[in-house]
Write a structure and sequence with these properties.
This protein has about 550 residues and is an alpha/beta fold. It has helices spanning about 5-25, 35-45, 50-60, 70-85, 145-150, 175-180, 180-200, 215-225, 260-270, 325-345, 365-370, 375-380, 400-410, 415-420, 440, 460, 475-495, 505-525; strands at about 90-110, 115, 120, 135-140, 160, 230, 255, 275-300, 305-315, 350-355, 380-385, 395-400, 425, 450-455. Bound molecules: zinc ion.
């Protein structure tokens, strides 16, 4: 045997050995002899359906902008999937929201040179009614006050108004930190801060108007003045990524451009090159349309009026597919229900999932459900919400319910070692101030638990962006999350004890945070000179009372 063959055989053996150790490392050790937990593991990890579900929802159906027909299609698909698994499911109407159909967007630069721009309508934008709109551009000047702005408005008639800040660079901060000379980086940061100041909400360019998420009150005022349309850009701190939200304009279209193309059009306008753009936008505003939540239930046998509630918003923005916000949370909850129906079909408590709509426009669906179902709010043993991307869960803990958190600790301790190993138990915690649908319930005293995922650059790449697509889903993480959450739901359902609704005292929590901050500040001041902190970078004081719930709007409530 020659040397090459020997080394080839050795290499093959070491690969086989490595694979075996990997497989052995992944085999779980369970702290109890509970057979249901073992079966959950095998259904969740060995015959997962998350990839098929994601392909269907994210690629074939698409984004679920609230009030649209696509959202309704997606909800009908949800119901049909649950029925195919033998789980009862229905769409439960709670109100109306404005409807809209997104058609194609095509935006070209015609002069001083020809280029097809990376651009699309923001959500709910009016279109160009079947014919191209050709117009030149104008930059929103910096005004001393809103009277000056109103005097300027006639100049903007028939033009496309650039209403977002010009990008100084479309490179992410990480590039500037790594490659810029210290002087250059400092200059860049100072100029970027000045620009951000001038264009900041709520008083954009001194107009007295705000942009909200896509056009806002400023967009409406410009539309009233007869502009042809508005050009916007909300780049994230990453290459090629931008947020795409919504407008309340009904005549003048609002278009989102990539960082690079917005910068190009802005500079051409600034330089007096008089750029001309052609917009071909197909869309239709449809007025108020019915909206509903999708609810699926596995009824409890022993305590049917007590609930373990799964929660994940189903709606999304529509700049891409809404894959990680919140396709992954939705698929996670579907998969949890599928696993439990197979492994634990007669639960002690009722297991229910709420696929809420209207989250992105103000937690509307979940708030409405809370108002419409006081019996569920009162009967809930535990609520698990997921809405922070695709990553495997690394933090599990309470949201300000000491007794419920004690119960949750007993569930956590029964998880197999490989799932527990990657997760930090967060303790009692505190309620948040909104942000996702769990708020709609814990504000009313329903014990809820945080499931914090590994971030996978969620904030810069996928959250509300044009890049939130199927390929960003990390299926290994999603599969393990479904297995983990199915186990927690099973354990919460089986718990011989009912969780109590005792809450932490918010005032004494606030006092101890303030005391700790003061001590830290005193220690810092003793060693470093004061840096002249401004009101802007001073954190908000900690809340002294439990957050209040607010009311669900039952029809479109504009956010301007
Ligand atoms: Zn979300």
């Amino acid at each position: 045997m020659n040397l090459r063959r020997v080394s080839a055989i050795l290499a093959a053996l070491s690969v086989a050995f490595a694979e075996r150790t990997l497989a052995q490392a992944a085999a779980p050790t369970f702290p109890t002899d509970d057979a249901v937990l073992r079966r959950i593991w095998s259904v969740g990890m060995d015959s997962s359906r998350v990839e098929q579900l994601a392909g269907r929802l994210l690629d074939s159906i698409g984004p679920r902008l609230n009030g649209t027909a696509i959202q309704r299609n997606a909800q009908n698909w949800l119901v049909s999937m649950y029925k195919s698994w033998g789980i009862e499911a229905k769409n439960e109407r709670y109100g109306t929201w404005r409807g809209w159909r997104r058609g194609t967007s095509h935006v070209d630069l015609l002069s001083p040179r020809v280029r097809t721009l990376e651009a699309t309508m923001v959500g709910f934008s009016p279109g160009t009614h079947g014919k191209p709109l050709v117009a030149s551009t104008i930059i929103l000047p910096l005004f001393g006050d809103s009277t000056q702005f109103v005097r300027w408005l006639p100049q903007a008639r028939g033009k496309l108004v650039l209403v977002s800040a010009p990008p100084l660079s479309c490179r992410p901060t990480a590039d500037w930190n790594e490659f810029a000379s210290p002087e250059s980086r400092q200059r860049y940061q100072a100029r970027a801060a000045d620009i951000a100041d001038e264009w900041a909400n709520p008083n954009v360019r001194g107009t007295g108007y705000s942009m909200a998420l896509g056009g806002g009150a400023l967009g409406l005022r410009l539309e009233k003045a007869g502009v042809a349309g508005i050009l916007t850009s909300r780049p994230k701190d990453a290459y090629g990524t931008r947020e795409i939200f919504e407008t309340y304009n009904t005549r003048a279209p609002a278009v989102s451009l990539s960082c690079e193309d917005y910068g190009l059009v802005f500079r051409l306008t600034e330089r007096g090159d008089d750029p001309r753009l052609r917009l071909e936008l197909d869309s239709k505003l449809l007025g108020e349309q019915p909206v509903s939540n999708t609810i699926a239930t596995i009824p409890g046998t022993e305590k049917p009026n007590e609930y373990v509630l799964l929660s994940a918003h189903f709606d999304s923005w529509d700049g891409s597919s809404g894959a990680t916000d919140n396709g992954t949370g939705s698929i996670l909850m579907m998969e949890v229900m599928r696993i439990l129906k197979q492994v634990y079909p007669r639960p002690k408590r009722t297991i229910r999932v709420g696929h809420w709509t209207g989250e992105e426009v103000g937690l509307v669906g979940s708030r409405a459900y809370r108002e419409d179902h006081p019996e569920v709010v009162a009967g809930t043993q535990a609520l698990f919400n997921q809405d922070n991307g695709t990553g495997r869960i690394e933090r599990f803990g309470g949201l300000g319910f000491p007794n419920a958190t004690e119960r949750a600790r007993t569930w956590f301790d029964k998880l197999p070692d490989v799932l527990r190993a990657g997760v930090t138990f967060g303790g009692v915690g505190a309620p948040g101030l909104g942000g996702s649908d769990d708020f709609s319930f814990y504000c009313a005293g329903t014990p809820a638990f945080a499931l914090g995922g590994v971030r996978w650059n969620y904030g810069n790449y996928t959250w509300h962006t044009d890049r939130d697509t199927y390929d960003k889903v990390v299926f290994d993480d999603l599969r393990s999350n479904a297995t983990l959450v199915a186990m927690l739901v099973y354990l919460a359902s089986e718990d011989p004890e009912r969780t109590s609704r005792t809450r932490i005292d918010m005032a004494s929590r606030a006092d101890s945070i303030l005391a700790a901050n003061a001590a830290a500040a005193a220690a810092t001041n003793a060693t470093t000179p004061p840096t002249g902190s401004t009101a802007r970078n001073r954190p908000a004081p900690p809340p002294r009372v439990w957050p209040s719930c607010g009311e669900a709007p039952r029809k479109t409530r504009p956010r301007l």
